[in-house]
């Protein structure tokens, strides 16, 4: 639900790419990434190892949405153990230039936070080796990514669209034209292949401390970035305890600040206070409840969300049962009672997940923030750097105000659902402000209404707020929701703006469901080109 995605042509409704299996499952937004993950599972690898292989391939074949120069977030779940989180967020440069207004959206001045995705892989790999008896070699998990970067891959329709969309402005992006020429049907990335090969041979900290780190720092500084080699060395992903709220006899979990995970959980907590037994899935009442819960949660999100190392973020109070009940009591029958005051945020992201025969799973989100990130390719490394620093507020007194060493507001928030001590769902989506909105639609359909992953992903969704081509704070509804539902929502005060069925505005989520009998069901969204594969 990125703003700019409103310009992308709508897809024709199609059946979701789904799969079932009793031995292992992967889902991702690109067939080559899913194939790499399935290959690891088939070779005896576990869910974490499969996810690392997919993460690396996606950095090659989805360069407009993710890359080594971005951030990454993990939820790792297994039966009989607490869910573990990895928060891979790069921090702002220690020495920042004076800022007289908002952080620039492109160019070297926007590349002001380090990138922690690679270190998030390292943290996950350590968990796999230490606690899951993982036996896959680090180098082998990067092999398919290196192969695709060296030998080339078919340029996807999505990559081609975003390259042509940014063609005029991209001419001014440092090193971009040479790395991503327009008009190719097959693309090779030799610089990125060399970088990945160094990481495979030397280990993940090569990205932050080795020859690659030196080349990255020099390339970024040549483009006007304030990041230094010391900033690279100080970059660390963190193992974190996920936040949790009870829901329908189970527990929903997501990541703590500075991600917006608590907003998704707060909205779901509000919905959990409501009785869904008397309403129909996809009805006006269903949509109205979801929208009003999102409004309430987003007010708290935009008031408090920031790096907790620098600001007080009262997540325990916000997710406390008493606050959730108060919020649920504030939900209004008429949408006009509570307008939509939120500032639009853009963000392009990939979600992927893996599950293995032991009932363990990993759900991961990676991002370079805007499509093509900062536009800066760092020297000869082939690494496109993100522009997540643009998520900072330019007013230093704001909780999310820009300061040296601080981590920015992050929209990425994968979700897990646990029941009776075992994983039941792993899911996540692309979409910035739209992530919590897509997630509440999927979670209510999967949990409250009992839809399977493919059915839940195929049903119409909503996006409340502005987009690239529509500056109104209207409620965008996919047209297959039906005229009757639209009319009923309009009567309740919603400003309705129909969008095409299976519109890219509605996000690109993926889901893996762990069934009670030990089998797995997975799907990726029909609005994109992703695929779920089972062993």
Annotation keywords:
single chain; 535 residues; alpha+beta; Serum Albumin, Chain A, Domain 1; 2 domains; seven-stranded antiparallel sheet; 19 strands; globular
Write the layout of secondary structure elements.
Layout: E1 17-21, E2 24-28, H1 31-42, H2 47-61, E3 71-77, E4 84-88, H3 117-131, H4 138-141, H5 143-151, E5 153-154, H6 157-165, H7 167-170, H8 176-179, E6 186-187, H9 190-202, H10 206-209, H11 211-222, H12 229-233, E7 238-240, E8 243-247, E9 250-254, H13 261-272, H14 284-304, H15 315-318, H16 321-330, E10 349-356, E11 361-367, E12 415-419, E13 422-428, H17 434-448, H18 453-458, E14 462-464, E15 475-478, H19 483-491, E16 496-499, E17 510-514, E18 520-524, E19 531-534
Parallel strand pairs: 15-16
Antiparallel strand pairs: 1-18, 2-10, 2-19, 3-4, 3-11, 4-7, 5-6, 8-9, 9-12, 10-11, 12-13, 13-17, 14-15, 17-18
Main sheet characteristics: 7 strands, antiparallel
Q: What oligomeric state best describes the polypeptide chains here? A: single chain
Q: Enumerate the spans where pLDDT stays under 50 for 5 or more consecutive residues.
A: 1-15
Mean pLDDT: 92
| Helix content estimate | 25-40%
Shape: globular
How much of the residues is beta strand, in percent? 15-25%
């Amino acid at each position: 639900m990125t703003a700019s995605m409103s310009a992308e042509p709508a897809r024709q409704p199609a059946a979701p790419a789904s799969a079932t299996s009793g031995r292992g499952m992967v889902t991702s937004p690109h067939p080559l990434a899913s194939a790499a993950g399935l290959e690891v599972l088939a070779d005896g690898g576990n869910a974490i190892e499969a996810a690392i292989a997919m993460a690396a391939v996606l950095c090659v074949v989805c360069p407009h949405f993710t890359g080594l120069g971005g951030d990454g977030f993990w939820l790792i779940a297994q039966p009989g153990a607490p869910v573990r989180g990895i928060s891979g967020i790069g921090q702002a440069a220690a020495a920042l230039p004076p800022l007289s207004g908002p952080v620039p959206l492109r160019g070297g001045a926007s590349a002001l936070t380090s990138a922690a995705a690679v270190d998030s892989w390292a943290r996950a790999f350590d968990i796999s080796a230490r606690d899951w008896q993982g036996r896959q070699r680090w180098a082998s998990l990067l092999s398919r990514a290196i192969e695709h970067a060296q030998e080339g891959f078919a340029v996807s329709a999505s990559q081609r669209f975003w390259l042509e969309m940014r063609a005029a402005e991209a001419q001014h992006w440092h090193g971009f034209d040479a790395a991503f020429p327009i008009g190719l049907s097959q693309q090779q990335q030799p610089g990125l292949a060399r970088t990945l090969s160094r990481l495979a041979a030397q280990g993940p900290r090569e990205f932050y401390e080795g020859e690659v780190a030196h080349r990255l720092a020099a390339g970024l500084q040549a483009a006007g970035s304030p990041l230094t080699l010391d900033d690279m060395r100080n970059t660390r992903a963190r193992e974190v305890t996920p936040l949790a709220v009870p829901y329908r006899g189970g527990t929903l979990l997501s990541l703590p600040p500075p991600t917006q995970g608590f907003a998704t959980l707060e909205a779901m907590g509000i919905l959990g206070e409501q009785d869904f037994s008397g309403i129909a899935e996809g009805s006006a009442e269903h949509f109205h409840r979801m929208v009003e819960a999102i409004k309430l949660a987003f007010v708290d999100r935009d008031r408090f969300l920031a790096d907790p190392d620098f600001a007080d973020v009262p997540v325990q109070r916000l997710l406390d049962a008493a606050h959730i009940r108060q919020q649920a009591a504030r939900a209004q029958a008429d949408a006009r009672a509570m307008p939509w005051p939120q500032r639009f945020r853009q963000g392009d992201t990939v979600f992927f997940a893996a599950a293995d025969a032991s009932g363990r799973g990993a759900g991961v989100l990676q991002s370079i923030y805007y499509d093509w990130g900062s536009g800066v390719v760092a020297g000869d490394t082939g690494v496109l750097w993100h522009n997540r620093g643009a998520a900072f507020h330019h007013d230093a007194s704001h909780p999310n105000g820009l300061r040296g060493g601080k981590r920015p507001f992050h929209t990425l928030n994968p979700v897990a659902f646990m029941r009776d001590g075992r994983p039941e769902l792993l899911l996540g989506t692309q979409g910035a402000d739209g992530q919590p909105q897509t997630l509440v639609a999927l979670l209510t359909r999967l949990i409250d209404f009992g839809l399977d992953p493919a059915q839940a992903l195929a049903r119409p969704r909503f996006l409340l707020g502005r987009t690239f081509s529509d500056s109104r704070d209207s409620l965008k509804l996919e047209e297959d929701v039906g005229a009757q539902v639209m009319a009923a929502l309009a009567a309740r005060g919603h400003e309705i703006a129909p969008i095409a069925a299976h519109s890219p505005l509605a996000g690109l989520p993926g889901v893996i469901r762990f069934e009670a009998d030990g089998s797995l069901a997975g799907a990726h969204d029909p609005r994109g080109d992703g695929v779920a594969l089972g062993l």
